[in-house]
Amino acid sequence: xxxxxxxxxxxxxxxxxxxxxxxxxxxxxxxxxxxxxxxxxxxxxxxxxxxxxxxxxxxxxxxxxxxxxxxxxxxxxxx
Length: 79
Fold this sequence. Notes:
Elements lengths: L16 H16 L2 H11 L1 H11 L5 E2 L2 E2 L11
Antiparallel strand pairs: 1-2
Helix pairs in contact: 2-3
C-alpha cells in the first residue's frame, strides 16, 4: 500500500524542510548573540516581554492521570 499524501503533496509524517532550516537559523543567531546568558540579561531588563513570549511556549492544556488537572486557588489573610 502506498503512503498517503496530504493535500499539499507531502507524505504523511514527512518533515517540512523550511521550518527546520528556520529553526536552525534561529538557533545559530541565538548562539551568536550570546546564548542563554544574553537571554537572561535581556529577560531581567524586559520581564513582561519575556513572560509574554514564554507563556506562548507552554502547553495550552495539561492533563493528569484521570483527566484535566484541577487548579485550586486559596487566598488566606496575611498576618
